[in-house]
Amino acid sequence: MTRKVVVDNTLCRNYGICAGIQPEIFVIPPGSPFPVIGREIVEDDDLEEVREAARSCPAQAITIVES
Ligand code: SF4
Questions:
Q1: Torsion-angle region of 60 (φ positive above 0: left; ψ -120 to 50: alpha; else: beta)
Q2: For position 56, which CATH number holds?
Q3: What InterPro entries would the database entry show (predicted)?
Q4: Domain housing 17
Q5: Cβ(16) to ligand 1 under 6 A?
Q6: Hey, whose CA ends up nearest to atom 4 of ligand 1?
Q7: How many angstroms does the Cα of residue 64 sit away from the middle of ligand 1?
Q8: For residue 8, what pLDDT is reported?
């Protein structure tokens, strides 16, 4: 199974909480209105932090997609 993280840029309000929790995956370049995904595939070691970011996002813009 592969897990990917997706940010819905139409929902994101650039609170930056995700980048504070997992800055290698949620990268907010200077001046960017939303995070860029630095590493799309979510490894097992990252899963709990990515889940925490998704739970913590006030805009509910983060989804983990499993395939
Ligand atoms: S926490 Fe949510 S709203 Fe804030 S930057 Fe991350 S994805 Fe966007």
A1: left
A2: 3.30.70.20
A3: 3Fe4S_ferredoxin, Fe-S_cluster_ET
A4: 3-66
A5: yes
A6: 15
A7: 14
A8: 96
Which pLDDT score is estimated for 10? 96
Residue 5 · residue 43 · CB < 8 Å: no
Q: Cβ distance 12 to 35 under 8 Å?
A: yes
pLDDT digits (tens, 9 = 90+) for 10-20: 999 999 999 99
Mutation probe of ligand 1 site: the residue of 6, 7, 63, 64 with most atoms within 8 A of C-beta? 7
Computed over every residue of the chain, the mean pLDDT equals 96
Are residues 17 and 5 in contact, defined by beta-carbon separation less than 8 angstroms? Answer: no
Residue 24: pLDDT band with limits 50, 70, 90: very high
